[in-house]
Amino acid sequence: MDRVIMIKYGELTTKKGNRKFFVNTLYSNINKKLRGLDVDIHKDISRMYIEFSLDQLDEVLKRINNIFGIHEYVVAHKIETDVENIKSNVLKIMKSLSFKTFKIETKRSDKRFPIPSLEFSRQLGGLILKNIDGIKVDVHNPDILLNVEIRENYTYIYTNHYRGLGGYPNGTLGRGMLMLSGGIDSPVAGYLTLKRGVKLDCIYFEAIPHTSIEARNKVISLTKKLAKYTDSINLHIVPFTTIQEAIYREVEDDYCITIMRRMMYRITEIVARKNNCMIITNGESIGQVASQTLTSMSVINSVTNMPVIRPVACLDKLEIIDISKKIDTYDISILPFEDCCTVFVPKHPVINPVLDLCVEYEKRFDYQKMIEDAVNNINTMVIDDSVDKTFEDIL
Q1: Helix (H, G, I), strand (E, B), or coil: what is residue 239?
Q2: Are 222 and 154 within one domain?
Q3: Is 351 exposed, middle or buried (0-12, 13-18, 19+ CB in 10 A)?
Q4: What count of other Cβ atoms lies within 10 Å of the Cβ of residue 139?
Q5: CATH code (residue 131)
Q6: How far is Cα 191 from Cα 312, in angstroms, rounded to an integer?
Q7: Each residue of 173-199: pLDDT tens digit?
Q8: pLDDT, tens digit, 9 for 90 and up, residues 279-321
Q9: Quick check: is 170 in a domain?
Q10: pLDDT at 140 over 50
Q11: Rounded to whole angstroms, what are the CA distances from 152 to 80, 110, 144, 327, 339?
């Protein structure tokens, strides 16, 4: 018997006329993730099959666990479809397992197979009971659920089910620009955006010497964690020192964060449009800090016409932390290196800013020229999950 990983699409099956596009994109993404391994991948409209070398099974499973668009997968035995061949192999498989109760489920996708599904399950169950002592059937809570899928060319036999990440294949829903800080929330927002099929670029604002090289490398590490779920991510590093210093020189303390965020949004939109991004996405969570009250969000958001997606907006902090631990970004996020949003936080930032007042403050300095200079001096690096370089390594 050959072994094969069989992938089930789940939500992709609801796409009707676009289903082929989603399946083909998933196929391409799996090929990229498994590059360098001895595998052979086949697909049809309802399943995808990965044939592999047995010594590489663990590595294949590790990689496909990071691919969006997979609802479920199984490691199955693949055999020629023949009644007696199926029976003999089912018995061989069951004899190799330890169990007291079992259930058989047969799915006859190939209607040319001469025995109906329920009847064939009964025949297989009877064969097992006859040849293995001390066991019985339990249709409600069996120790072993044996699945037999009779498809057009082969039959697949398996006893395991593994949940995939779900979502849509990355790249099926266009590009987005993630405002990535060094905190807990924005990497989680990036993960959730990737899950909906959006290919991400990331933008990070640094204000050397007020922010550190360690803070920059922290963001590179977070980008690398997100890159596990796609092929690569462009990280755009914005020199923000001149703008930030002008804000804290010309603007009243309580409005500094609001004006700073408005500048960041302006720059993010410019960079997003240059990189064919259709949305901005970030880690803002309603009410978590002063700049994330509904009034603040409205005033800050008014500088851009680009849609802004906030995947964690309605999650509480503990829910966000749970996801950050799941995706292995939490320990990086809590490293004590401050970013632009935390290094100059005033004691009493305004929670209900007035738009007209923001406009008046912004007239005090030539922010448009500063934004132009910042955009022209962005450094961009390409991050994938195999990259182990810091920013300095590419200069």
Answers
A1: strand
A2: no
A3: middle
A4: 12
A5: 3.30.2130.30
A6: 10
A7: 999 999 999 999 999 999 999 999 999
A8: 999 999 999 888 899 999 999 999 999 999 999 999 999 999 9
A9: no
A10: yes
A11: 10, 5, 26, 38, 57
Q: Is residue 168 part of a domain?
A: no
Q: Which two tokens stand for residue 165?
A: 């990440």
Domain of residue 343 covers 175-394
Strands of 199-206's sheet in order across: 308-309, 279-281, 175-179, 199-206, 233-239, 379-383
Among the three residues 100, 131, 163, which one is the final residue of a domain in this structure? 163
What is d(CA 239, CA 209) in angstroms, rounded to the nearest whole number? 11
How many domains in the chain?
A: 2
Same domain, 215 and 363: yes
168: left (phi over 0), alpha (psi -120 to 50) or beta: beta
User: b vs e for 44-62, b when ≥16 Cβ sit within 10 Å of the residue's Cβ?
Assistant: eeebbbbebeeeeeeebee
**What Rg value do the Cα atoms of the chain yield, rounded?**
27
User: Rounded distance, CA 347 to CA 137, Å?
Assistant: 68
**pTM more than 0.70:** yes
- Please give the single-letter amino acid code of residue 294: L
